[in-house]
Automatic annotation (TrEMBL):
Its cofactor is Fe(2+); L-ascorbate. The keyword Chaperone does not apply. Keywords: Carnitine biosynthesis, Dioxygenase, Iron, Metal-binding, Oxidoreductase. Converts trimethyllysine (TML) into hydroxytrimethyllysine (HTML). This is trimethyllysine dioxygenase.
Amino acid sequence: MIRGGFARLHTALRRSWPHHGGMRYLVPQSARQSKACSTLESRWFSLTGSRSISSTALGEVVSSEQLGVTQPKVHSGIPIANADERKVSILWSPQSWSRFHNIWLRDHCRCPDCFHPITMQRLVNTFEIPPDIKPIHVQGTTEGLEVVWPGLNTETHSSVYPWDWLQANAYDQPLHTTPDRKVIWGSKIEKSPPSVTYTEVMDDGGKGLYEWLVNIDKFGFCFVSGVPATPEATEELCQRIGFIRESQYGKIWEITADLSMGDTAYTTMALGAHTDNTYFTDPTGIQVFHILSHTEGSGGASLIVDGFYVAGLMKELYPKFHELLSRVPIPAHAAGEPYALYTPSPPAMYPPLRYHPNTGELIQVRWNNDDRSVMNHLAPDEVEEWYEAIRIWNTLLKKPESEYWVQLSPGTVLATNNHRVLHGRSAFDGKRRLCGAYIGIDEYRSKLAVLKEKFEDTVGYGWSKRSGGGTRSVWSRDL
């Protein structure tokens, strides 16, 4: 028996005409749409838009009258569930609803028979689920949506889906509300840059490490003060995040102006704002820089620029050229060493600005004009426009409002998100010794997620009370 239904909400909803085999649309009398608004001037910029349910986003549901079932007693705060031949519909409020395909729900059962509670891996055989599977029984409870299915290897199979989990993973209509906000910054960040101490980061409790990684996630960079000025201490600091990514420059690389490696970083020349590893298919995620010493000279100030800030400016001021940089890929190479020749795979497939295909969120800035290869894939009518686009991009990068200059000294480490923040330096003289390392973006995101589980109040979803206080649940986010 299918329990639940939308009929109890006749006071809030109006009926429309019958449609398709006696089914009908249920149309809210009114619906409000909200938009997350922010400005570059405020330095707060929502990277994904909030989604609200529109009154025109209608779907077919089966009423409880049509199914011939009795209305259950209304439970305060429990969403209303109903089902048809293909989907289970959930009414969260008069203006908010979601639908989940039967096969999707059965495939996402997280009971111990379907999802291993220790390995956190799927056990259900997706390909044994009948494509036309229909629930035997659907009911809303305080724990979540209860569904009884025809069994695959038994007579029946029971599933419970926490309400918050369903809301977070709704795809029809999407209910993702407030996205994570990142602080988009310009030169004024120098007044209060994010910083933690070496002692805090190295503490076994992990709270200082978590603050460091959250700052990198939020701002795209963070300083660590009080670090012993040695490669060994720098390596230990990096290992607090995870495995260090070895490259052609080594594991912990040391840079002096001796051209010991075939890269302009090993000179005294100024370096414009750029990201590293544009010649890799997967550029490093986190970069760590530590000045160990600088004697008998001056200069060598460090430059960082928020690529998300500059991309936002370009999108607002020059949308046509922004579109070019979001679409036209740029080939790159690293060929300064006779034993190595790096190019991305496949070549010329990555534009400077990469946006998420579903959310429209800017997820990566990839720019180093010094490592650019031949642009032989431009359409003839785009050549001049493309050069104008990168000229504007370069101008915006070099605007005083975009640049944050800082003179690093021994003991202060700078960590940047190489997928967002560009870095450079001024020319210098004297003997300058710098060490650093690369850390993969997946290593960083994994450590951040683990620490978030530990320090956030809840990890899973509130309705189920299945997780929190550092306990990972089968309903935890990202699983």
